[in-house]
Protein 1
Amino acid sequence: MNTFHIFLLENEPRWEKSQSSPGGYLTTKMSTLVTGFFLILLAGTIYYGRYTQPKMSSHINAASHMTMNSTNDTHIQKTNEGLLADPKQKVNLTTQKINDLKLDTETHSLYMTTDSGANWVFVPIDSQWLRFGEYTLTTGLIPEGYWMDNTYDISADFSWFIYSSGDDVRLLTSRDNGKTWQTSIITQSVQPIRYRKAVFYGNDGLFICTSASGMSAETLYIYTTMDGGITWIKSGSTMINQPVQNVSFVTTSLGFVSTRESLFYTNNGGRSFKESVLSIPENYQTGGIDLFQSPNEVTQISANTLETKFYLLKKGPIDAGKMFACLFRSTDNGETWQFVQQLSQVEQIIEAAEIAQCDHFIRTLPDGYDTIISSENGTLSQGQQQLLTIARVILANPPVVILDEATSSVDTRTEALIQQAMEAVTKDRTSFVIAHRLSTIENADMILVMKNGDIVEKGTHSELLQSPTLYASLYNSQFQIA
């Protein structure tokens, strides 16, 4: 509730009856009444403007109602609903797709096309608004300029984008090929977000997201709409015991959630989930499932039959360690899944990339696994280049591996991904790991501490922490242990 105060300062001259004019008192009283009436009218206007206007959904023309906002001394034009204003600049973009979204590197603006690039339409949101929260999948961080699957869709009659420019998650839509835009709030209560996805079936739709939790157990949230995204309601939430890899809904009621190890299903729109039973033949490993690796989804092939692909690793005397795409079907709405047949071997290079935690960002590159990269063109970050190097080592399968500062110059999350990849590349082979980040070598069989070119200490991680050693001092300083 807002309150308005009029303060009377100490020793302020009081209003006195005028001694020089009989009408002075009446004139002063009349002026006071007029002033008071004006203040009441002003307060009412402010109240009406702030508290009686609709907030949940807005239908605006992105070219009208312009205001100026300042961020870091740089002026950015926005609409009265926080959308960006069209810079009205000609862009030189190309695509081979009919419907596509591109980031213009000169204007740093988003543009979409529905006619194979003949015309480009400005999308009034910042590219970073699409990357809100933690923009990371179980396969790694998604590079700048690329997007998670099913976080937007483009067509001439209905384009939509999931975004956030503040504390809430919103849907941006256009039903006239970008001439006008509409915004609606999906949720204001889930931040930060990691995984996110939306699907529409006509006017019915779902938004699914997980809370960011450092790649451990996550809470999955599901929101539904029945009016094309204008209004949303929360339909369910559940805790998943591992990071969510992907989600696939067949209808607004029937859906599936996968992790690396398990598959869960719901038949009530996400209000509750149960674990599916997978009948995996004995000559395949149960780990390493990649159920929804794009473009794999659960599909309904008949009234009572669902179908999808699992990527499974072979074990045993034949094709051990090779990954195959296997067809599975369910006739009980996903409660159980039966093996149908082995389809084809997944290329060894893809398997190595998955083990090295770099498959996803490779798939998001312009030409996927055929993309030509170099250290000069800036296509990959330092951490992504490190992951690719580890993938090459896995493919080469050498008896001895030397890793020199494999986690240098990367952020904490990329360091965690590299460490996971290092566990795979050092397994069952002699490995020499040179590192200043001591978290990289905690599991080593033997640690040699060098100072000025000489070995001054040796032992395992736990042994070197038992006494006041140089290693213990360095470790405690890095992890701030008293």
Protein 2
Amino acid sequence: MSNWYLQNGKDSDVVVSTRVRLARNLKGFKFENKCSEDEKKQILDKVEEIIPSLGYGLQLLKLKDMDEITKISLVEKKLITPDFIEKGENTAIAINKEENICIMINSEDHLLLQVFGEGIALAELMNLAVELDQKMEKLLPYAYSEKWILNSLSNECWNRSKSISNNASSRLSKDRKLKQGISRSK
């Protein structure tokens, strides 16, 4: 099977791709921005231990073992963020061959689970994200509070999940302006 971003999905003429993200933190550890390198190593070790049990063909790749071109490629594919590259020695991703599942470990939160799809695929991707999250929750002790959302990002405190649809309308608008400029210059 080809990588998701090489495929056309439902309404892909308008919506290029969809991404669903779930942020999770582990019980017994400080938020990532307050964690020591030793604590980050413990988190990474715990996640590395459970990856084979999750399925989906996930493999763990440590950022410290990647060359710069690979890291830049992952950023360009929007699988990781530019800030994630600078996070330190105890960062990694769990990713599958199709690159439609990517879990950043020790990013803004301990775990940032992301699923990707072509076109508009919000329901399917949310189902996949929840399925994977439930498997992870059985194997890792998530931090949980009835009163608070345990997320380190203040701009996302309203919810622990985020979905993003990249649409082509801004690209189409730029293409129209370009064509108008070309036709005026003739």
Protein 3
Amino acid sequence: MADKKTQDTQQDTAPKPGKKNKIFLIGLIVILLAVFGGGGAFYYLKQKKAEELLNADSVEEESSENEAEQTENTYFVSMDRVVGNLLAAPDDPEQRDKYLAFKLNLEFFDNQDRKNIEKLFGDIKPKVTHAIIMTIPQYHTGNIITTEGKKEFKEQIKIQVEKLILEAAKNYKVELHNKKEVLKSVLLEELLVQ
């Protein structure tokens, strides 16, 4: 009888072969659900992110097309490198004068006037270079290296160049579509203070 009692106790404590398989199967299902659920969530989020990127790209393309349309009526003329004397900063009397070397591009409005302006510009280019060189001594090392100083410098060049082109158009009796403003901007390509 004692043998029968110990045998029953061993059977109760011993795991049943089907119970182990059920635990393994449930664990496998949980892991598979986690993997496929995580993969599905990852895929969904990536799709959403991809759609956002595509929308952002299309917005950028539209804005770049708008910019292209806005700059479509402009063109550029490159100037040779210009070198001039730059005064020492007034607050530093020990500092010696330096050189300012730069290269710039002139952005003109209205492609309809392009041939006329290019012809005029070719005729007056030495005067333009001279006017730019004469603008340099108005600046010193302390203000030409600041952002505001560069903006003011470019604006002064723009005023001088535009004045020369409009005077030349009047003198050569060249008809321009825009008689007040032909130069859109002055772009510094290089700027070296030495």
Protein 4
Amino acid sequence: MARYTDAQKNEAVRLYVEGQTLADVADKCGCSAGSVRRWLRAAGHTPRPRVRVSRYTDWDKRSAVDRYVAGEPSSRIAADLGCCAVMVRGWCRAAGVTLRSRGPRHSQRSRGVKMYRDGATAAEVGREVGVTQQTVLRWCRAAGVPIRNRPRYSAEVRAEAAARYAAGETPAEIAADLGCSSDTVRRWQRAVGVPPQKRVSTAADRARAVEMVRQGATQREAGEATGWSQAAVAAWCAAAGIRRKRRAKTPTATPATPPKPKAPRRALPPFALAAALQDLERGRSVDSVAASLGVSVEQVREIIDGARQ
């Protein structure tokens, strides 16, 4: 770590007292702003307070307050100005404006509870009022409204779904008609005891898929056209003696590695050069001195060559 003499410290204090900033003094002295601040306190000087410069003008703040008073939400105003909603509410609070509650209004909650009591589902109420399904259920529990269970399918509907599955329909087709999931249809089928139906490919499907692959289509494209998986088409092609054709990869040019940017060349003050030479004489490495000064290793070597001359 570089050691600075009293003359160097006094020079840094003088520059700061003359009106320069901590960053400017640290850049000229080749040290950190914390070191300059520590030297100032040791010399009996109090560092000037930092001044925060806002990029929002008074006109922006007044406009945001006026929009909030007109009824716009703080989140929308913040999105237009590129700031956060907390900052907009802080401007309104500083202007003496009473902040609105960010939660749902009482009329909104009463409307949601009434819709649910009249028979609408929690999801429908949430989409209409603009809240989540869990929020609607929480409102209803607080209002003493009993929560309805999810719609259950009768035994006749389950039996009909199992019969349709046994007749050859897919679970996806049955689920689309009943408004449930495919897993639900499979669960009904297992509960009734209907064995899983294994799809049997027809000769027409196999011939069509193989002919498409022979004409240049991929196995995936042939499977999507015939309604079968890529693995099934691959098995049919292997049985027909057709090997899979791999698409030729287009050669891509490897981007050249950009050269490593060199460290910026800085003009060092005389006392920084003297401190660097002292550190090198004590056995400190060139890389370490260059890192502490914020310069390149080549510049430190040039300093050494200049001192030798």
